[in-house]
Structures are given as C-alpha cells and as structure tokens.
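Lab manual, section 2.4: Encoding a predicted structure.

Procedure: take the sequence of the chain (559 residues), apply the prediction step described in section 2.3, and record the output as structure tokens. A sample record is shown.
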Amino acid sequence: MPSISWILYLLPVAAIALFRDLWAPDEPRYAMVAKWIYDHGEFLVLRRCGTLYPDKPPLVYWLAGLLGWLSAWSVPVMRLVSIVPMFGAAWFTTRFALLWLGPREARWAPLLFVGFALILWNAGRIALDPLLTFGCVGALYFAARPAADTRAAARDALLAGALLGIGMFAKGPVALVNTGLPLLAWRLFKLNAPGARAPRWSIAAALALAVAPVALWAVAASLQEPQLWRPLFFGQHLERAAKGTAHAGPPWQHLLELPLLLLPWSVPVAYGFVDGFRAWRARANGDAEQLALARIWLWATALLVFFSITPAKRELYLMCAYPAFALLGGRRIVFALQRGVVGAWAAAVPLGIFALLGLTLIVAGFAAEPLLASSPRFDDAEREYARILAAYPDVAWRSAISGAVLCVGAALSWRAWFARRLTSWASGVAVTWCVGSASVFALLLPVNDVIKSDRELAALLATQPGEPQEIPFYDTHPEGPRFYGAGPCVSAPVEELLDGGLEKRAEQAGPDFLAVAREARWRAKPQAERERFREIALIRVGSRELVVLGLASAAGSAR
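Recorded output:
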C-alpha cells in the first residue's frame, strides 16, 4: 500500500489556489464573467465586461460567482469550484478501482489521478473542465455499476442522468461525448457490466435529467437575448468542432503531449495501456480481471481516438479520460510491486525529472542574475528579473529551497529502488511530487505574479486621475484589470487604433480618457497620430508588452 493518501494532494492544490493571482487568458475571463452575474443580477445572459458571452453554459460561473460573492471576491475561495469537483472525480476513480480491480488499486489509482501534471495544475484554477469531469465520470460510474435488481438499476440510471446533467450544465454537449462514447464502445464490444437492466422509464428520465436543465436555460437566455440562438444551439459546439478553428492541431498532438501531462506516472500508465490492449484482445476468454481491464482501456481509447480525430486540440479535452489512465497505471504498479520487479525506466523517468528540475531550480536561483547581466541578448529578461528582485529579494533562496526538496526526495526514492524496497520507492515518488510541487507552488508562484498577474496594471489604472466611463483594451484582455478594480475596462476592436476610432473615444472622454493597447499594435500607428496621446506607462503582463495611454499634455510623454 502507498504510504500517502491521495487526500494529501490537497496540499499542492491549495498552494496553487492560495499563492497566485488570476493568470490569463482563461482564468480572469471566467472570474469576471462570474462576478458580472452577481454585480448586475443578470443570471440568464452571461456577459464579459459587458460584452455578450455566448461560449459556455452558466453553472461554473454561477457557482464561482456565488463563492466570490460570499467571500468578498476571494480568488482562492472561488477556485473551490474546481478543487471540490476534482477531488470528487478522484473519489469516483477509487470507486471504479474497487468495482473492477481491487483494494490495492483503489489506493493507488486516485493517487495517480490527482498527481498527474494536468490534474494537479488545473485542480487549483477556476475552470470548466473539473466540474465537467466530475459529472461525466460520476455518470459513467453509475451507468457501469452492476445492479442487483430492477429498482437498483433504475436508481443508478437516475443518478447517472443527474451527474451527466451537471457535466452538460458545466460545458455543454461535450459531456455526452465523454460519457456516451465509453458506454457505446462497451456495448459495441459486448463489455457491458452484468446485472439487472434499468427500466425504460428510468432511462428516459435519466436523459431528461441530463439534457433538460441546460436546454431550458439556453431557451430562456435566447428568448431574453435573441443573438444567443445560433451560438448556443449550433455555433459553440457543432460548428466549432467541425471547423476546428480554435486550438487546431494535428491528429497526433495528444500522443505527443500525454507523456508530459501524465508525469510523474507516464511509464506505469504506458505499461498499463499495453496491458489493457492485451486484455481487450483476450476478452473472449471471459476472465473477470481481463474484462475489467478491457473496459478501462476501451474507455481511455475511445476518448483519445475521438479527440485526436476532431480538428480542435487542447490538453483539457482529454481530462475525462484521466481516471481511466489512473486505473491502468495503478493496476500496473500493483502488478509490479506484487512481482517485486520495477524496471529501470519506471524508476528513472520520475526521479530523473525530479532531480533535473530540482538542480535547475537551485542553479537558476543563484545564477540567473549574473547570467542575464553578462549577456546583451537577454535585455528584456534582465529587466523583468529586476522587477522580480525588487518585489522578492529572496527569490534565489525560494528557488533553491524548492529545488532542494525535489532533489532530496529523488535521492531517497532512488535509494529505496536500489535496495529493492519497491513500495517505498513508489510511495517516495508520490510523496516527493506532493511535497516538492507544493513547495514550488507556495514559494515561486507569487514570484511569477510580478509578471503574470494583472494586479499591477489594475493598480496603475486605478490611480490615474479622472473618472473614465470606459477604458478600452486593444488586442489584450480587460477582464483581469477590471476584476482587480481598475474601473470600467472593456474590449475594443483593434482596428480602432488605425481607423480613427481611438481619436473619437478620446474626444468623447476628454481629460478622463484612458486606454490600454498592445505595444506592437500601438507602434504600427503613424507617429503624427501617436503624438496626440501620452504614453503613461509601459508594462509587461505575461507575454504581452502593453502601453497605457492618456491624452497628450504639456508634460509630454512619460517615456
């Protein structure tokens, strides 16, 4: 058995939630959409800084907004909308392991699931996919659980429908794919779980529970705002999936990304995937364990194939397959520990990565400043590092401490593997990743806020004189600054910078005029037109070089 419970992974997840601000592009948008709902009492029609937001159903925004409203808009509290569902999905992973594999796998599988790099990072963010995953995996569990009689089968069908409804209300029709494809694959290959069948009325009721809530909302929102009919009923799912213009990628993209996103457990998952394929090929033998492995493999494969075929590619699209990856990897770890043989690759990949990352953090902490100062190629990086040092003069020690935690954990785990204390080795990987990632998140994420957060930009805008009715943002995101109290920040068409729209806004606003633009876009404007404005400040937020603009004055340019 592992010497660490999967619940302890709340430590790094809490560190992600507590020690960093909202980071663009997605999280500030989600937070501001949620805040707008409760600031304006507009629950049916979602808006993004006043602009219509037809992209997704409202459940995550309702819940995140409620948490924010109750906590005076505390970002860590709002992130509970992802933390709670993700650990709920881990609990369902435990239930699947107990149902199909055994108690040992039920200890390892959720530990792998919450420790996967993709899951660990996204569990502490305001996001849609954790609640989607909870709903879809929960629905799949109750749909797959053998029922003792018709009454139990009907109850499980209704529970599956209700959980699928949560997934639908979180992210839309993709929930039907994440739950329906594995069920269809099991049926196609005659891998349905044994037990009593649910009566037809309960299946109809389950489908109603799944579809009716989000459908009723979509109709009500479209009646209130007719522009929503097309995006809600076609554009944001069928049309978007067919065109693949958002997050387009080649069919093999997920295969290239998965080894990194499944760290530190990529090797056992890969071996487990091979075991699952072999079990699927041998399913005609009727062995219970082989049938269970075949079901898990088919679950993972169905989703992997589907999201590889569709034009749009994003790592989060596969999140509902990660419990299946965890079950396959957990079963392989138990198998290896029972045989007393863990290959060198299984040991070297996670521990080598821990050691490399740890050494990099130790060296970078103390070597970054002299390296940047001695090379003219890194002028921008040197400037940003100076910003970090001004806010965190102890950044080198922060980096070294977090790196040392990873190195010490890797060394102890290596020692256990060489001594053939294999359970201690596997537990050491889990403990090192838990404590090491928690230390990295707690010590270094606040440092990254200096560059990645919109808070500094918001403070700068809030201290400017005047009371602008709108602060247009050109080719950059207004949600983060607005959430942090910068004022009425709104998105504006980037074409305005060149077609005279900026000048019209300035004339209407008068001395209250403020605007923010990406610097490259601003420099494309003719010099004579730029001279009518004052560059109040240049500021970097993430990868974006931004310029804050006001009307020209006798003081001239701030630069």
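Check your result against the sample. Residues 554-559 have pLDDT under 50 and may be disordered.
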